[in-house]
Amino acid sequence: MSDGWVLPEEVLRDAPAYTPRPGELADLELLLIGAYAPLTGFMTRADLVSVSRRGRLADGSPWQVPVTLQVPAPLAQALDPRDPARRTLVLTDGEGAPMAALEVADAWPVRDGVAGVGGVVRRLGDGGHGPFQRLRRSPEEVRALLPPGRVLGVVADRPLHRPQLAQIAHAARTLGAHLLVLIPVGEDGRGLPPESLVRAVFAARDRMPPATLVAVPLSRRPDEISDALLRARVSAAYGVTHLLSTGDMLSGAGLRVLVPRELAYDNRDGQWRWREDIPPRNRRLALTQDEIEDLLDRGFPLPEWHTPPAVARELARARPPRRHRGLVVFLTGLSGSGKSTIARGLSDALREGGERTVTLLDGDAVRRELSAGLGFTKTDRDLNVRRIGWVAAEIARHHGVAICCPIAPYAAARATAREMALAAGAGFLLVHVATPLEVCERRDRKGLYARARAGLLTGMTGVDDPYEEPTDADLVVDTSDLTIDEAVKVVLHHLTETGWVEPKLPSV
After folding, report:
1. Cβ proximity of 342 and 331 under 8 Å
2. Collapsing DSSP states into helix, strand and coil, what is residue 116?
3. Which of 4, 23, 439, 446 might form a disulfide with 125, Cβ 3.0–4.6 angstroms?
4. Residue 468: is it exposed, middle or buried by C-beta count within 10 angstroms (0-12/13-18/19+)?
5. Segment 97-109, tens digit of pLDDT
6. Mean pLDDT of 469-496
């Protein structure tokens, strides 16, 4: 698009800027292209109250799902909906490029430090960048391309294997409908990277009836009902008259929803049929998502009876075997627990093997080189872990192994590091080095505990600052009764057993 609105220079110069979270950015794109019509901006308090009570916006338009924007409270306090010079908020993408101007009509506290803002949004600039921009058409553009008559919509949030393709072909043939495939490319950090999903869906195109394929900035919501309602509304905006459910998705918003019967593979003639129509001895059920991922993780080919070869190739490229995929090994524990020593030993062992490119992000080194200037407040500790997580995820994105060993005392920051790695298409192994505090204090190589007990040091994790023990650790190691070599072998054994490292042949 190139019809962006141009703000007056003095407003653009003085207006504050904010980068929404990934799900909010996806909502923003859908608002800007008209896929959320009649909604034209983020909801105000009046809209939210009306939606919760009546399923309608404050102006009476039907709408069932909150679409909101949250910002830091100090930023909201600097905005004044009554002052034209102070009510504009520039919304930027993840790289800081302006996407839209929000004319704030309402602002309100949500929780401590966070506020909600609502108002109309208008596009700034040329409409963004990124892979497959040619497929990111607006609903108006797509509707103009569709033939008259029924339109069968499919939200392809996963690759299409033979059972889904057979269901789609049957539904399109039964309805006499044109097929419209909507590929969600919102950045939600789950499943395949958006560009890989687009390639995988396109790889199945020759197995589909005549179809129009569109990339849509949809991001999955945690609430299944809200997610289904929004997907149905967006589908309707693009011209869909009948929506096919191809997975766990519910639907609604006035569309005719088709829930297909379960198919199975008939080994008598190699066709997919309704499960009940095939004798049990000749029936083969579709692979589950876990089974598909397990085959890919171990480097085994997806069977041709289940997955078209072109789709299988794309999936193997997007999700290589674990032994070739990027990995973040994240060791967390108290100071003196042994995590840094284990990390160095693990790094040395992997480098000796030679199969992997290894980067060690040691806590002290990171503090000097990456996080210089940060203190030890909760905010600074979280920012330090976030920086480590981002660098580690980028290393793993390019199939390297990043080994990190910060204290990382807070669960939320560790969860963010995991999300970054998964969003990069990498693995994430959280190792809790659970050496007890009294053992760590006896070691006290740096003298930190002694200084903290003497009142000379504050904010010491385990003394006067909390350590939130992981409940989601993939591996727990206690070095109280283990040598460092033994602890390193425990981690290496886990990596080998889970497929991240090639097993070593016994030496002759």
Report:
1. yes
2. strand
3. 4
4. middle
5. 889 999 999 999 9
6. 95
Contacts of 96 (CB under 8 A, 6+ apart): 17, 19
Instruction: Locate 496 and state its tokens.
Output: 């080998």
Reported as a single tens digit per residue, the pLDDT across 48-88 is: 999 999 999 999 999 999 999 999 999 999 999 998 888 99
The continuous run of DSSP H or E covering 54 comes out as helix 45-54
Using CA atoms, how far apart are residues 42 and 34, in angstroms rounded to an integer? Answer: 13
Asked whether the beta carbons of 153 and 305 are under 8 A apart, the reply is: no
Per DSSP (E only), the strands in 291-418 are 327-332, 358-361, 401-404
- Give the global pTM: 0.85
pLDDT in the model for residue 504? 73
Tell me phi and psi for residue 108, to 5 degrees.
Answer: -155, 150
Cα separation, 27 vs 210, whole angstroms = 29
Burial class (CB in 10 A: 0-12, 13-18, 19+), 344: middle
From the list 225, 216, 214, 213, the residue with the least C-alpha distance to 188 is 216
Say what the pLDDT of residue 9 is. Answer: 65
pLDDT tens sequence across 181-219:
999 998 654 568 889 999 999 999 999 999 999 999 988
Six token digits for residue 77: 């306090």
Mean pLDDT of the chain: 90
Q: What is the DSSP letter of 246?
A: -
461 phi and psi angles, rounded to 5 deg? -60, 130
Task: Tell me the two tokens of residue 2.
Answer: 């190139």
Cα dihedral sign, 204-159-157-201: negative
Whether the CA torsion 162, 165, 171, 172 is positive or negative: it is negative
CA distance 322 to 330: 17
**pLDDT number for residue 10:** 62
